[in-house]
Design brief:
The protein is mostly helical and 279 residues long. It has twelve helices and no strands. The longest helix is centred in the C-terminal third of the chain and has 36 residues.
Length: 279
């Protein structure tokens, strides 16, 4: 009876997982389908999954109508810089919080949790005034500063968990072998912690790459705008969307995140397994 129950439970889990995957994949597959449909099929009352006459005209129109390459470059610069700076700041802070638990560490952890509860609308006016006084409105550097501040609590929270998962016995063994504190951190702790740092940087990058509200408010001139903001230009003043070019541009906007994750995810998994074996 227990064997049948376990099999039924496992089958139920697989069915639930399959349903969840279908739920996640449906919007992306429909986006791909829309991307390659000509205008006549986009207006059809009975849309099909597979385009009858696939075309690349939507990509050509999207690049002709909007500066997608410039916007993608701006997004890439902002996301990369924000992810790198956030991780560089958060990593030593996370190590201290994880290894030296004190009242200050608890207060910092509470700040991390509380900071995530504030909505964007409450923060945008103070941020705008601060950046205006620093003459950083309508600049990528001002936007990068905002992204770093916004990503830092989440990056710190993630890295604290990763540091706590690194066995202290590894550091103690290195200390017994005569390694100094800095040598221990660089040669022992850092390699085991590397998958967590990469994963945190990846999440920070994706968050900054997809961010819309701050970029919309802080960047005014078209040559400074990021890709999510430029995508809104395919929607007319009356709310009518240029669906084909919009789908093509949105498809291109999703590719960097997918490619980066596909390249890094195996290395992250392999490094985590290696670290677990070492511990």
């Amino acid at each position: 009876m227990s064997l049948r129950t376990s099999r039924s439970a496992r089958a139920g889990q697989y069915v639930a997982l399959l349903g969840y995957l279908v739920f996640l994949a449906f919007p992306f597959l429909w986006l791909i389908s829309t991307t390659f449909k000509p205008a006549r099929e986009l207006g059809s009352l009975h849309p099909a999954w597979i385009p009858e006459h696939p075309t690349l005209d939507n990509f050509r129109t999207a690049f002709d109508e909007q500066p997608l390459l410039q916007a993608a470059t701006n997004s890439l610069i902002a996301a990369l810089c924000a992810a790198l700076v956030a991780v560089l700041i958060a990593t030593p802070m996370a190590y201290v919080m994880a290894r030296h638990r004190s009242r200050l560490s608890k207060v910092t952890t509470g700040w991390v949790v509380v900071s995530q509860a504030f909505p964007f609308v409450l923060l945008i006016i103070p941020l705008f005034l601060v950046l205006k006084n620093l003459h950083l409105i309508n600049t990528l550097w001002g936007l990068i500063m905002v992204y770093v501040v916004w990503a830092l609590p989440f990056a710190l929270w993630m890295l604290v968990g990763y540091v706590r998962a690194v066995p202290t016995e590894l550091e103690e063994a290195a200390s017994v072998d005569g390694a100094g504190r800095l040598r221990t951190l660089v040669s022992v702790t850092a390699p085991v912690l590397a998958p967590g740092i990469v994963a945190t940087a990846l999440f920070a990058f994706i968050t900054a790459w997809n961010e819309f509200f701050f970029a919309l408010v802080l960047l005014k001139t078209p040559e400074k705008q990021t890709l999510p903001v430029v995508l809104t230009h395919f929607i007319g003043t009356e709310g009518a969307a240029d669906l084909g070019p919009l789908a093509a541009a949105a498809f291109l906007a999703t590719l960097p995140s997918l490619v980066i994750f596909a390249i890094i995810q195996r290395r992250i998994t392999g490094s985590m397994l290696t670290g677990a074996v070492k511990s």
